[in-house]
Amino acid sequence: PIYNEEASIPQLWERLAKVLNENFSGERDWELIFTDDGSKDRSLLMLLELAKAEPRVKVVEFNRNYGQHPAIFGALSEVEGQVVVTLDADLQNPPEEIPKLVAKVEEGYDVVGGWRQGRSMNDSIFRRLPSKIVNAITRKTTGVKLHDYGCMLRAYSREVVDAMLLCKERSSFIPALANSFAKRITEVPVGHAERAAGDSKYGFWKLINLQFDLLTSFSM
Ligand code: UDP
Ligand code: MG
Q: Ligand 2 centre and the CA of 49: distance in Å?
């Protein structure tokens, strides 16, 4: 998901290309899908340039800003692989963790959640407190005891992705939705870094909006 990330895209691509090329080839080749979620900066242009030079890169273009979870859905509907990894574009989720997550799905897990380590150093208390509340509510409503539902560095099996794509809700909360279709769920510790550039795209209202999606979609 890309929303005004022009400052992060070059480093994001450089690190992704390295880790993907070093770990995946042949039968286990990679593909990379970016959704431009209505960016107003040069993000879309930059992504289209990448896609022109590398056929394994695809770009989904949204007409306006819909939000991170709809943007991920946009990419999921294009994805062809057997194992699907999602991650943020601002390099808070290290791309170097991707092989670890893929290995877990190949081991037989349907959903592999990242559990961010050392987050307190990179996100303010005002960003972490809402996450704590979201995690607590999600644990209650879904009955699945994960530590970190907000980490979008996650991996899914093809089956879970297909099941999610059958859901036509306009708004959803992907980690909770995925868990509802998964039998074997696990969590792996993953690194967490400071945002490479720019500011969080989650203002107060976007967080409230996401919380409402979670409550209205996954509770009575
Ligand atoms: N994002 C998006 N649409 C939005 C808000 C965010 O596609 O409306 C993307 C953003 O570009 C980034 C990811 O979602 O790749 C996570 O956003 P951000 O880093 O701003 O959130 P935070 O880390 O503060 O939770
Ligand atoms: Mg971020």
A: 24
* DSSP annotation of 20: H
What is the spatial distance between Cα 179 and Cα 35, in angstroms, rounded to a whole number?
A: 23
Task: For 167-199, give one letter per residue: b (16+ CB within 10 A) or e.
Answer: eeeebbbbbbbbbbbbeebbbbebbbeebbeee
What is the Å distance from ligand 2's center to 92 Cα? 6
| pLDDT over threshold 90, residue 202 | no
Residues facing residue 114 across a β-bridge: 188
Mean pLDDT of the chain: 92
Q: Ligand 1: residues whose CB is within 6 Å?
A: 1-3, 5, 37, 65, 67-68, 71, 88-90, 92, 127, 200-202
The structure's pTM equals 0.92
Taking CA atoms only, the protein residue closest to ligand 1 atom 8 is 67
